[in-house]
Amino acid sequence: EAHFAHLYGCYKMGDWTPGAGYMYLDDASSDGKSFDTLFSTAHKFNGWSDRFLDSNGGGLPDGLQDYYIDLKGKLMGNNLVFAYHYFDDVAGNDDYGMEYNALISRKVTENLTASLKAAYFVGNDDRGDSYADDDMNVWLRLDYTIGSKVGDLFK
What is the DSSP string of 21-46? Predict the structure, then answer.
């Protein structure tokens, strides 16, 4: 028996939406296996550096508490997302580290969108595992849309 909880709240203020959240993935103390997300969505919810992909398959024996804030908005035709995560184990004894995320995207043409995305994980130097290591990831992405939206097919 393992537990999971996710709380998130935000407030739209014009073009900007600040938010705050908390996610809890149980540790392996109850039956020897931590919470299994089944279909890992760690990239979407637990920082873009993908340090917590082990949540798929119950591979986080210490569990995870993710405290985070984010800011989403628009500026001069660009979509912007900024986020900060603080990662802790379930017992609260040995944090994993923290992470900064940033995304800027812009529609270049009717069908083409360009985006630049970055994640910087600052590991806990006191840990004796891979979470002690810092990590930086950057993505440049072009999305080209062909044809109708799926929703338009059912009108």
Answer: EEEEE--STTTS-----SS--HHHHS
